[in-house]
Design goal:
The protein is α/β, with parallel strands linked by helices. It has a single domain (9-296), classed as TIM Barrel, CATH 3.20.20.140. The protein has helices at residues 49-56, 76-90, 107-116, 144-150, 169-178, 197-211, 232-246, 266-277, 282-296, and strands spanning 9-14, 61-67, 95-99, 120-124, 159-162, 184-186, 216-220, 251-253. The longest helix is centred in the first third of the chain and has 15 residues, at 76-90. The radius of gyration is 18 Å and the shape is globular.
């Protein structure tokens, strides 16, 4: 008889922001960028730890990982200082994935400054690239200047949070193999937006090649799709495939809130994940919801 997980949760991927006082170009009034969930006007509002805890309802969030929010790239340290201030006031977040543009001339200085901040564990710089399977071109993961910036992370003990669609993962495999001392954490399950059998087969094959690298992990996060409610039935095949490929010891839960509030409530999403992983052994469920994120992001109990 499956036992539903009821322990502490470490949210490995979430955001806080105050668009009315901080520099988020994409959250400004009247600005509309191409967004995978479509209309995102509803999240152009303050979102702070007290609101997040209210959204979580009865679920016990023990810790969270703040992921950079496309803050003004002219001030990457400013975002880290802001998130660190939230932690001092609210007790959340407990780790930070900071902004660092790896191909800029100031990359070495920014990485060093970010690494000096006590809560920073990782950095993120979305590498762009082909927008659909089979499209010609490469991402920044193949750019020499970007890779030179990436090479600096290991010396500072920093991970790299990678957000790229699954069809770019062969470049990520090369990156992981060339830098075995740096952990790559794939955000949002490689963005499997299309769920037809052929698309899922291609996604799984790319994910399997990536999972074969020992220095990678993955977040079961950001699984919503425009026009579809977040359900365990819709997302279960993706989550089960992640755990099959990476194991629970390299797979971690992430809410992607408040972004995924466009797809479902936080209690509904957490309950959905709990239902999906209920057939797993208790220790695997604990790893998925708590233990893996604690270890990867070096969070204290």
């Amino acid at each position: 008889m499956p036992t539903t997980y009821d322990g502490p949760i470490v949210d490995a991927h979430q955001h806080f922001w105050e668009p009315d006082r901080n520099p988020h170009p994409w959250l400004r009034p009247g600005v509309r960028i191409p967004f995978r969930y479509g209309d995102y006007e509803a999240i152009k509002r303050r979102y702070l730890p007290d609101g997040y805890r209210r959204d979580a309802g009865p679920h016990r969030i023990a810790a969270s990982v703040y992921v950079e929010t496309e803050w003004d790239p002219a001030d990457p340290i400013g975002e880290t200082v802001y998130a660190s201030g939230l932690a001092r006031r609210w007790g959340l977040p407990n780790a930070i994935v900071a902004q660092a543009w790896l191909d800029r001339e100031d990359a070495a200085a920014v990485i060093a400054r970010q690494a000096a901040e006590p809560l920073v564990r990782s950095v993120r710089h979305k590498p762009g690239g082909p927008a659909r399977p089979g499209e010609a071109g490469h991402t920044l993961m193949s750019d020499p200047a970007w890779r030179a910036g990436f090479a600096l992370l290991a010396g500072h003990g920093l991970h790299f949070d990678l957000q790229t669609p699954w069809w770019n993962l062969d470049e990520a495999v090369d990156l992981a193999r060339d830098h075995p001392g740096t952990t790559l954490i794939l955000n949002h399950a490689g963005l499997p937006a299309e769920r037809d059998p052929d698309s899922l087969d291609a996604w799984r094959a790319a994910m399997a090649r990536f999972a074969a690298c020992p220095n990678v992990a993955v977040k079961a996060s950001g699984l919503g799709r425009p026009g579809h409610a977040w359900t365990a039935a819709a997302n279960g095949p993706v989550v089960r495939a992640l755990i099959d490929l990476f194991g629970a010891e390299r797979t971690m839960f992430g809410s992607n809130f408040p972004v995924d509030s466009l797809c479902g409530t936080l209690p509904d999403i957490i309950a959905g994940f709990r239902a999906i992983v209920a057939p797993l052994a208790a220790e695997e469920q604990h790893a998925f919801f708590c233990g893996t994120a604690r270890r990867v992001y070096a969070l204290s109990e």
